[in-house]
C-alpha cells in the first residue's frame, strides 16, 4: 500500500508540474509601449506616437519639464498617437506612455519616448549673441524685417518682469534693423520684448556680462598698426588684460618670450562680431626661469603662417606656469598649438574650452615632447578638432586628463600609429587620477596615403580610463587601444554631420541618440 501511495503521489506531482509548464496563465501586466516615430515639434506642440500593445484598452501619455519630478500634462487616449498642444514655447519636454489594461492591475509600466524642445515663438527678433552682442551694460537688439514696421523695444528685468528700459525706434533704427540699448546693470538677466505698435513681435532672454576689472590695456582705438600688440607686451605690468579690437589683425613677427601673467582678449564691440586675429609669423616662448601665474587667450583667432614650423607656444626654457587657457578661440595652420621641446617646463593646468582647432600638424594640440617637462592637469571641453595629426601627447606623467563634449574628425593622422591621447607605452607615464573621456564623437582619421585607421588612447596599465556616452561613426577605422564602452554608430560621418568636408559638424541625423548631449555643443540641433 505504501508503494502504491508513493507511486500515486509521484504521478500527481508530475501531472501538476506538466500542467504548470504547459499552461503559464496570463501575463501579470502588459508590455511597455515602444516608440514608433521620432517625437515631433514645429510649434508649441509635441506629437508622440508609439507601437500598439496587444491587449491594451487605452494608453496614458504624460509630459514633463523636469524628468517627471512633476507632470505637466497627462491624457488618456484609445489610439497610439497624441498631440500635446498649448505648451510653452522653446521648452524642453520629456514624454512617456503607459499601456492600460481592462484590469488596471495589469497596466504596463511607463516607457520613456525621449525628450524634445518645442519650437521658438514665431518671431522676427534675433537672440543676442552672448559673445559679441551683449556687454556689461548694453545689448544689441536686432531683428529680421518682415510684416509690420517695428516701433519699440522694451527691456524687462527677468527677476520680476518690471520694465527697466523703453526705446522708441526711429527711421534709422528701422532701416538698420537693430537698436543699441544701454544703461543696464552688469551680470544681470533681462528679457527683450519687440513691438509693432501694441503687437508683440517676439521676446528673448539675455544676461549682461560681468564688468572687467584689473589692469586694462585697451588697444581698440589703435587701428592699422599690426605691430602694436608685439610692441606693447614688453612695456606692461604682469596681470594686465590686453583688449584687442574686433576684426583687427596683430602680427607676432619675431619670437616673443613672455615672463608675466597676461590675458589676451577680444574687446567688446556690439557692431562688429569678428574676432581679433593674432597672426603668428613666429611663436611665443617663455623667458628662462620665469614663474608665471597664468596666460589666457579669450575670443581670438590664432593663425599660423607656416604649417610646418609655426606654434602658438614653442617652449625651450625652464619655467613654471600655473595655467595656460584658451577660451572661445579658433586656432589654425600650426605645426603645434602648445609644445614644450626642451628643459623642464612645468605646467600646472592646461585648459581649452569652446574652441575650434583646424589644420594642425605632427606636434598636435598639446605636446609635452621632453621628459623633463610636465603638465599636471589637462582639460579640453566643448571644442571641435579637424585636420589634426595629433591631439594630446605627453612623454611624462600627469595628474588628470579630461576630454568632454568634443567633436573630432580627420584626426588624428591615419596609419595606426597616432592616438587621440598618447602617454606612450613607458611604465613611467602614468595619469595618477585617471583619464576621463565623456560625451565625445569621433569621425574618421586624417587620411595618410589612403590609410584612415587610428587609435584612441595609450598609457600604462596603472592609469584608469573612465568613459561615458562616447560615439564613433561607422567609417571610423580603429587599430586598437579603443576607449572602453565606446559605441560604434551605423551611420557615417556624412550621414551624421551636415558638411564635415567643410568643417560643418551640425548633427543632422534625428535618430542619433546622442544628438543633444554628445560632441561639441555648438553643433547640437537644439
Give an account of the 3D structure.
The chain has 526 residues and is mainly beta. Helix content is 7%, strand content 41%. The radius of gyration is 30 Å and the shape is globular. The N terminus is likely disordered.
Notable traits:
mainly beta, Immunoglobulin-like, 14-stranded parallel sheet
The helix/strand class is: mainly beta
Broad shape: globular
Spans with pLDDT under 50 lasting ≥5 residues? 1-25
**Overall pLDDT level:** 93
Biggest beta-sheet profile: 14 strands, parallel
Radius of gyration: 30 Å
Provide a count of the helices: 4
Question: Count of DSSP E strands?
Answer: 41
Spatial gap, N to C terminus: 80 Å
Binned, the helix content reads under 10%
Beta-strand percentage? 35-45%
Question: Can you give me a brief rundown of this structure?
Answer:
It contains four helices and 41 strands. The protein is mainly β. Among the domains are: 40-117, Immunoglobulins (Immunoglobulin-like), CATH 2.60.40; 139-207, Sandwich (Immunoglobulin-like), CATH 2.60.40; 212-365.
Write the SSE topology:
Layout: H1 2-22, E1 40-43, E2 45-49, E3 58-64, E4 73-77, E5 81-84, E6 92-100, E7 111-117, E8 139-142, E9 152-157, E10 163-168, H2 171-176, E11 178-181, E12 189-196, E13 199-207, E14 216-218, H3 228-232, E15 240-244, E16 249-252, E17 256-258, E18 262-266, E19 277-280, E20 284-286, E21 290-298, E22 301-304, E23 311-315, E24 319-327, E25 330-340, E26 345-353, E27 356-368, E28 374-381, E29 384-388, E30 392-394, E31 400-404, E32 407-409, E33 419-422, E34 435-438, E35 441-442, E36 455-458, E37 465-468, E38 471-472, E39 487-488, H4 493-496, E40 497-499, E41 504-507
Parallel strand pairs: 14-15, 15-18, 16-19, 17-20, 18-21, 19-22, 21-24, 22-25, 23-25, 24-26, 25-27, 26-28, 27-29, 27-30, 28-31, 29-32, 30-33, 31-34, 32-35, 33-36, 34-37, 35-38, 38-39
Antiparallel strand pairs: 1-2, 2-5, 3-4, 3-6, 6-7, 8-11, 9-10, 9-12, 12-13, 40-41
Amino acid at each position: 500500500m505504501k508503494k502504491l501511495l508513493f507511486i500515486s503521489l509521484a504521478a500527481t506531482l508530475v501531472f501538476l508540474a506538466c500542467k504548470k509548464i504547459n499552461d503559464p496563465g496570463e501575463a501579470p501586466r502588459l508590455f511597455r509601449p515602444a516608440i514608433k516615430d521620432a517625437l515631433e515639434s514645429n510649434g508649441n506642440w509635441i506629437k508622440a506616437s508609439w507601437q500598439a500593445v496587444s491587449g491594451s484598452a487605452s494608453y496614458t501619455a504624460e509630459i514633463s519639464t523636469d524628468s517627471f519630478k512633476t507632470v505637466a500634462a497627462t491624457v488618456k487616449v484609445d489610439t497610439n498617437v497624441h498631440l500635446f498642444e498649448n505648451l510653452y514655447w522653446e521648452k524642453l519636454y520629456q514624454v512617456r506612455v503607459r499601456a492600460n489594461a481592462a484590469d488596471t492591475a495589469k497596466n504596463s509600466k511607463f516607457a520613456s519616448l525621449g525628450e524634445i524642445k518645442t519650437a521658438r515663438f514665431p518671431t522676427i527678433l534675433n537672440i543676442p549673441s552672448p559673445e559679441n552682442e551683449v556687454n556689461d551694460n548694453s545689448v544689441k537688439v536686432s531683428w529680421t524685417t518682415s510684416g509690420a514696421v517695428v516701433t519699440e523695444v522694451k527691456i524687462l528685468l527677468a527677476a520680476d518682469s518690471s520694465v527697466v528700459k523703453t526705446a522708441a525706434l526711429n527711421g534709422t533704427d528701422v532701416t538698420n534693423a537693430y537698436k543699441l540699448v544701454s544703461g543696464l546693470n552688469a551680470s544681470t538677466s533681462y528679457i527683450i520684448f519687440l513691438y509693432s505698435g501694441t503687437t508683440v513681435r517676439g521676446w528673448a532672454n539675455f544676461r549682461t556680462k560681468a564688468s572687467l576689472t584689473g589692469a586694462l590695456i585697451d588697444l581698440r582705438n589703435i587701428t592699422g598698426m599690426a605691430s602694436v600688440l608685439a610692441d606693447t607686451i614688453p612695456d606692461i605690468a604682469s596681470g594686465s588684460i590686453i583688449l584687442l579690437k574686433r576684426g583687427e589683425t596683430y602680427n607676432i613677427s619675431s619670437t616673443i618670450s613672455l615672463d608675466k601673467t597676461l590675458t589676451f582678449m577680444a574687446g567688446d564691440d556690439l557692431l562688429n562680431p569678428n574676432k581679433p586675429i593674432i597672426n603668428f609669423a613666429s611663436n611665443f616662448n617663455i623667458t628662462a626661469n620665469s614663474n608665471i601665474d597664468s596666460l589666457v587667450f579669450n575670443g581670438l583667432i590664432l593663425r599660423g603662417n607656416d604649417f610646418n614650423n609655426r606654434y602658438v607656444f614653442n617652449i625651450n626654457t625652464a619655467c613654471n606656469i600655473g595655467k595656460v587657457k584658451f577660451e572661445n578661440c579658433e586656432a589654425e595652420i600650426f605645426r603645434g598649438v602648445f609644445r614644450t621641446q626642451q628643459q623642464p617646463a612645468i605646467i600646472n593646468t592646461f585648459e581649452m574650452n569652446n574652441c575650434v582647432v583646424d589644420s594642425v600638424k605632427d606636434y598636435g594640440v598639446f605636446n609635452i615632447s621632453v621628459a623633463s617637462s610636465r603638465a599636471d592637469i589637462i582639460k579640453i571641453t566643448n571644442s571641435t578638432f579637424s585636420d589634426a595629426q595629433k591631439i594630446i601627447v605627453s612623454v611624462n606623467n600627469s595628474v588628470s586628463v579630461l576630454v568632454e563634449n568634443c567633436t573630432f574628425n580627420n584626426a588624428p593622422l591615419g596609419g595606426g600609429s597616432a592616438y587621440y591621447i598618447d602617454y606612450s607605452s613607458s611604465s613611467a607615464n602614468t595619469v595618477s587620477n585617471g583619464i576621463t573621456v565623456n560625451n565625445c564623437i569621433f569621425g574618421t582619421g586624417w587620411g595618410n596615403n589612403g590609410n584612415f585607421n587610428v587609435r584612441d588612447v595609450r598609457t600604462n596599465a596603472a592609469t584608469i580610463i573612465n568613459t561615458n556616452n562616447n560615439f564613433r561613426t561607422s567609417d571610423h577605422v580603429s587599430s586598437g587601444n579603443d576607449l572602453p564602452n565606446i559605441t560604434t554608430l551605423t551611420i557615417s560621418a556624412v550621414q551624421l554631420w551636415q558638411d564635415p568636408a567643410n568643417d560643418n559638424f551640425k548633427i543632422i541625423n534625428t535618430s542619433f541618440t546622442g544628438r543633444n548631449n554628445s560632441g561639441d555643443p555648438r553643433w547640437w540641433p537644439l
